[in-house]
Structure formats: structure tokens, C-alpha cells
Amino acid sequence: MKQFVFANILEYNLRTLGVGTSEFEMAAWDIPGTDLADLAVFWGGDDTTVLAPQDVDAEWLADIAGTLDLRRLRVWASCGRTRSLCDDIARDGALLGAIRGEVGGALLGAWGPTPQLGTLLRELGMDGHSRTVGLPDVDLFWLAWDLDSKAGFRHFIRQARLEEWVAMPEGFIVPDAETALEATAYFSGQNRGCVLKTAHGTAGFGILRVPPVGTIPERDRVLRELRSRMRFDSGWIGRPIVIEEWITGRFGEDAVSVTADFEVQPDGNTYYLGGGRMRMKKSQYYMGVVCGRGALSVAITERTVKAGAVVGAAVAAHGFRGLFDLDFVVSGDGSVWVTEMNARRASPSHVFAIARRLRGDHWYDDCAVLANDHCTLAGAHDASYRQVRKAIERFQCITRASSVSVIPTIVSSLRRSVPYIGYAVLAEDAERASLAAQEFERLLAEAVGVPVQGHAT
Amino acid sequence: MSDGASIILSNVLEGYLPFVRTLDPPSRRIWDLACARTSSLAVSWCGDEKLVVTPQALDPDFVTDVARVIGAGHVECVTPSHTGESLSHAVLHDELVLDTIRSNLRRGATLRAWSWTREVCALRDLLAAEVGNFESESPPGSSHWSAAYLDSKSGFRDSAVRDAARQTVLNPPFGWICSDLETAIDTVYSWNACGLGAVVKADKGAGGVGTVVLPPTTPRQRIGALLTVAARICRPLARGPLVIEELVRCGNQPPTTVSVFAVTNIRGETVVHGHSRFAASEGGRYLGAIVGRDALESPIRERLDAIANVAGRIATELGYVGPFGVDGLVDGGDQVRCIELNARRTLATHLYDVGASLAGPAWQNIIALASADRIELGKHCESYGQLREQLAPSWYPIAGAQRGVFVASMDPPSSMGLREVGLVAIGEESRDASDLLRAAHRALGADIAPALDRTFPSRLRI
């Protein structure tokens, strides 16, 4: 079926920054928000039109359509005057006219529900959830936004009495960062570390981890940083802060971070889309995911799927329909803790879509996918998709006999001063996917002539 | 001073600082004055021997009268020479007041306060370093964050729904914690479409200010405008977090607001001091309370006791020690739905202390007390003496009986004369106390509508 997909990642992220955010702060979100829009080409179906904030490489687009065997894949770029994709579309008469001309009988999807998207959908007469895919009814966008906040989700789980099935780390919703700072004493008094989270932090931003009292210099450094952020970082000002226990892995190492995607379908049933182990930079910032065969133990997968089903049923009772994602941490003793909900499409969404397209609905039993969303080519001059393509061709030559393949997922970022790409590797299992990713990064380094910082291992 | 004596820091404004700092200058001035008036309630608190530290000097005749009514043996009032926002800071910078406090602590007095703010905890720690160990009705060490947490609307909701057992007893109305006004507007809009009323609360609102009641009859197209205008008038609403709760009704009537006041101690025990029924304006603003004999039916009192015990357990688990009040609404099924916790003394605290002073531990079965805390004087009144003269016919005790009225709080003395006062009426039962209060109102030519209600209109019309 024909689909129109709004790649409104930047628009969504801007709402997380809150009132009073400086231009300087907002600009920092422009690059990732715009580049990640490339991922939207994977979200739709056989006939997809992506509404994006910028144009994409035509050669790459044709390659993706060929690899995924899509009948039609188009990208319509907006004029990009503001940071809101939907506002830009609404102001661009020609683009809006073109959408109106073709939108009849199509489904609409997006990264996440925003007020601007709601207004545009109403204008297009597409605001009922029978006309959208992966989105709640426009009248319930507020519910998605509330569940998307750390405080809103924590309160929802407790109020709905779901903690028996959806265990969360011990924690509190405190009114401001100053109280959060003082509340660290609760955890340090019990020799436990804690994590402070802003209401709408994303991709690991808006999180500060306070180690147990045993490491006093590190603890003081974090507390100083928080005090400093309270003065200028809008995420820490004027919104609730969640403070919760820092869950660690075995022997005090970092816990395994897990993510799982679900969809509450129009009939209210929750459907598991896929899940995997998140790949983190500095143990905090999302870089990618490893999912499918061998990525997670069966027990962990079962617990995450169970938690998703419980949360899905609870939010469905309030009318929510659409995509959501749950993030978990697995502690050293194997306990699975839910840390947050993203009531929208999430970062690994394209990975699951690629795997399903290439390997069918039960792809997670047959293969593994490693996705790297930030493979940096620092120092590369005039890096181009041609060079990336060359590396992929060489990789395919080497792995011709096996069932391993590489798909470039983010390439608009090649025009940045510090270029980077995103890619996904499909292999028989997680270990082979990791080895294949290392090999691909080696070939990529040769093709662009600079070392690659890919963190593929 | 002997054992059982108290030092009372009447740091009312300091306790409300997170809220009042968000107000614009004219609203701030009115709130400052209201806090100064509330500070004078400290004379009625806690026992018959006390040192009361207030931000503004009190009229000596007022102090003598209150002490006489409650039968206090010794009441000494001191005021720091320069008081700004924080009484604790002012005390720290006034060596004379500090010396008086030190000497009282050395003689075994217990340190008490309106609210255990971080400033007063710092003062307590400094005094402990100088004087050594002393009794204090305060959260130990670094646990005072729990006061700010429990005192906020979102913090109370968060703790009230933590587990099923708590949720069953505290029974808060269904609600959400929102990060911003935009989401709150969309939420109310969505509820309104389902025929549900909503209450939107600023996280740090106080005294009903920062709370907007939106009945299901509110026209949908006006919800956004109402909340946006309310947020312009009352800035705490413009900032997150906001709490949205379903509107509790009692049939077609607004529900009765009830409250329980208790103190937790270092041993983890919760001692209930009393229950009250609130008199509130149409928009839900606190005007006064009725306590004691027949003020509340026994089943409601029992429920409030259970609520106090659960809330006390929550507080002590977090390390909070000290006074707290839990407010609730009685719905159509006679269930108490808890709406907030004040981790401090409250505007009704003095009634429990006065009741216990007059009639002993079983006072709630013997007498009734009614208070009106925001009486705007109709007749010009230059001084406390003049005010007393006007109230002479109903002054406590009437004909030697345990009946009558006294002034419990008043504006600090100024050249402008008195504008607002707070009265307490003591009667044999609730109706008697209310009648006495009404007679006193008439004698003062008073307008019950308080200045605060005019500053923050409870009903906006657009």
C-alpha cells in the first residue's frame, strides 16, 4: 500500500528541549536530527514517499530500492526554513499541493507525534488512526508525549499497578534538579549509585550517573556537572527530574542495555517488532544495536516481550495505538529492569524493517543484524557515497558465498565537516555480524583513505 | 526553659520560597504579607513554654492575649534585626537572636519550624556543631530533600501510587504528571471530549493558588485560552511539572475538603494531632478550618488516621521526620481521595495545639474550633487594641465558659493599620464555633473575600 512518511525527527527532538532553549543549544541538534531523516526510507512499504527536511543522494536511494526490492521509493524534500518539517511543508504550497494530489488512499507515518504533525494531518484530513500507520489518533498525541517522558511513564506504570510485570529501578520523580541533587543522598547513603534523568532526554543525552559513594572524586565531578547544567541546560530546568538506582552489570561493570520495539495495532493487540542489545558510547550514548539470533538470551527476550505486552495492553486501554519502544537494563544477576518508554518510532526501527523485508516476519530466528548509526570517517575530505559503495562492493565480493550483506543506512552525513555514515550488517548470528562489521569498516577505511572509528566490536 | 519547651522558627515565607520566587512583583508583595501574617500563628503552636522567632516583630498585647487564651506559662518572641526572604539566614546573621536560641537549646528546648527547608536544616546543623546534640523535630542529616519531594504535587502522586497497598489507602484521583502546559491543555481537552472534568495543578502551587478547576461543562474551545491566561497570571502554571487529576465530585456538589495533621519522629512513629474540615472558596482556595467535636464523622476520622499512618510510613522510609498534613476530598461514596501532602506545618496546625492546650489530649471529643485565616477588615482598624475592643463581646472566654473568639494571626504592625486578621472561635460544638466566628465577622464589618482571591481569580471569564 502507498505510504507517506514524515521524517520529523528534528521536529520531535526540538520539543524535548523545552521553553527557553537557546539558539546555540538548538543548533547542536540540527545535524543529527536532519541526517537521521535518511532512516525514513526504510520505514515504509513497497511504495513509499518520504517527506524529509533535506534531499538525499539519488544513487543511494536507487540502491536501497533495489536491495529491498521496493516498487517505488521517493524522497520529497521540504524547503527547510524552520526546524519543523511539518510547518515547512504547510508553508510550501507546491509540496503541500503535491501531497494532497497523491495522499488519497495512502497511509501516513512519521517518526513521532508532534503538535505540528497533528495540525498538518488535520489539514490533510488524515487525523484518524485508520489513515495513519504507527501513530495514535491526533486527539491522543498528548498521551504519547506524556508516556514518552521519563516521569510520565514511571508514574503511569505505578498508577496502573504494573510493577509486578514491569519492574523499574527504585526511584523518584522530583520537582526540580536542585531536589534531585539533594536526593542523591538517599542512594549514596545506602552505598548505591544513581542516575538522574531529564523528563525528555533522548539518545543518552539528559542523563547523569552518580557513582556510589566509594568513588568520591567521580561523584563530586558529576554533582558539579549537574550544578553547572542547572544554570544553562534547558533539559534540567523547569521540568520534573527522575532519579533512580544505577543498575550495574556483573562485578560492577556496565549493565547490558536492551531495547525492544512494539506496535499497538488498531484492534488493541500488541505486536512485537524486534529487540536487541544497544551499542553504547561511553556507556551512555546510543550508537546502534545488535539484534536477532544470538544477540540476547531467550530468557531476556521473553521478559522484554512480556513487559511490552503488558505495557501495550495498558496504554491501549487508554486509547493509544501505534509504535512504541521500551528500553531495559539487565543487571549482573540477570534481572531485567525497564528504564523508559519511547512512545514513537525508535532508533532501531529501520533495522527491524530491513530484516523483516529481507528475511521475513520471523527474521530474529534466522539472522542477526548489527546497526551502527555513527561510523565516523574523521579527516576524510570530499567523502562521498561512491566511496562507501565501493567498500560495499568489495565487501560483497569477499562474502559472496555467505549470507552476509551490508546496507548503508545514513549517508547524508557524508557532507558534514566530520563525515560519518550509518550502516547495517546482516549475518547468520550476532557474532558473525560483528566480525562482518569489522571487515566492512576495514574496507571502508581503505576506500575513504582515513581510519574509521566505528566501534563495530 | 524546662524539658518540653520549644524554640519555634516561624519560617513561613522561607517554606514557600520555591513558589513565591516564581511570582511577579505585585503578587509577590501580597504573598509576602500573607506569609508575615501566617508567621504570627506560631505563638499558638506547641505547648506552654516557648521561644518564638518571627521575621517581623509582633504586637506584645497580641502575644500576651494568645498566651493567656492557651494558658501558656512563658512565651518569648524575638525577631532578627534584618529579615529578607529567609528567616534562617537572618537568624544566622543576628548574634543576639542566635545567642538566645543557643542558650534555650542548652537548657533542653526542642527546635521546631514551619517547614524544614534546606536553609533551616543548615541553621540546625550549625547550631548542633556549636551546642552539641539537641532535640529537633526535623529530618536528620541530608534527608531534607524528602520534604521538597513529598511537598510537591508530583512527588506526592509519585509516592502515593508506588504500590497497591498505599494506593488503596491514599486513593488519589486518577491523574498524570505532565512536563509542560501544552501537554496539559491537550490532556484536559481530551478528557473534556469524554465528559470528564479536570484539575490542573502547578507542582509548587500553594494555598490553592496554581490550581485551575475545569469542570466537564467548560466549553472545549475555551480550555486552551483558560489555561494559557491562568498561566500568565500565575507563573508556576507556565512551568512544569504540572499534575492533572480527574475532578472529584460529590453528586452535583463540590466535595468536602478534609485534612489530617501528624508528626513523624526519629523512631519512625506517626502521631496524629487532629483532623479538620476545610472551608474553601468557590475556586478551592483555603479560607479556614473546623476541627474537634462533630467536625467530622467517625468513619472519616478513621480513614484519615489510616491515611496519616500510611503517609507517615512513606515519609519515614525516605528519612523525613517532622510535621506533615495530608489533604483529601470526600467523594460521593464517602471515600477520602488524597490530593496532596504538605511536609510542614499547615494553616490548621494551631487549632490542634490550641484544642489540646484548652481541653487536654481528648479535646477532639470535648470542644470544637473554627478558624478564618483571611478576614479582610471592613472597618478601619489602627491597632490590635482597637481590634480587640471591636471583638470584646465575643472574646474568649465568654462568661468564664470554654467559648469565645481570639485573634490568632495578624498583619505586622504598620502605619497603614491592620488589613487582614485570622480568628479562632472555640465552641461546644462545630455549629457553636461557626456561629461565634460569624458574629465576630459581623462585629468587624469584615469581607470574607480575601485579597489573595482577587489577585488570583478562581474563575476566569474570557
Structural write-up:
The complex is a heterodimer of chains A (457) and B (462). With 457 residues, chain A is an alpha+beta fold. Chain A has 3 domains: 2-135, no CATH class; 170-246, Dna Ligase, domain 1 (2-Layer Sandwich), CATH 3.30.1490.20; 256-448, ATP-grasp fold, B domain (D-amino Acid Aminotransferase, Chain A, domain 1, 2-Layer Sandwich), CATH 3.30.470.20. Chain A has 15 helices and 16 strands. Chain A has helices spanning 9-17, 23-35, 58-67, 85-91, 93-103, 115-124, 141-148, 150-159, 177-188, 216-232, 298-317, 349-359, 363-366, 385-398, 430-448, and strands at 2-6, 47-52, 72-77, 107-110, 171-174, 194-198, 207-210, 241-245, 256-264, 270-281, 285-292, 322-330, 336-342, 368-376, 405-410, 420-427. Chain A has an 8-stranded antiparallel beta sheet with strand order 13-12-9-10-11-14-16-15, sandwiched between helices. In chain A, strands 3-2-1-4 form a 4-stranded parallel beta sheet, with helices on both faces. A 4-stranded antiparallel beta sheet of chain A has the order 5-8-6-7, sandwiched between helices. Chain A is globular. The mean pLDDT of chain A is 89. Chain B is α+β, with helices and mostly antiparallel strands. Chain B contains 17 helices and 16 strands. Chain B has helices at 12-15, 17-20, 25-39, 60-70, 87-92, 95-106, 118-131, 145-151, 153-160, 164-170, 181-193, 220-233, 298-317, 349-359, 384-390, 430-444, 451-455; strands spanning 6-9, 49-53, 74-78, 110-113, 175-178, 198-206, 209-214, 242-246, 256-264, 270-280, 286-292, 322-330, 336-342, 368-381, 404-410, 418-427. An 8-stranded antiparallel beta sheet of chain B has the order 13-12-9-10-11-14-16-15, sandwiched between helices. In chain B, strands 3-2-1-4 form a 4-stranded parallel beta sheet, with helices on both faces. In chain B, α8 packs across α9. The longest helix of chain B has 20 residues, at 298-317. Classes of the chains: A alpha+beta (457), B alpha+beta (462). Chain A binds chain B through residues 18-19, 115, 139-143, 145-146, 149, 151-152, 154-156, 158-159, 161, 163, 172-176, 178-179, 182-183, 185-186, 189, 199-200, 238-240, and chain B through 18, 118, 141-146, 148-149, 152, 154-155, 157-159, 161-164, 167, 174-180, 182-183, 186-187, 189-190, 193, 203-204, 239-241, 318-319.
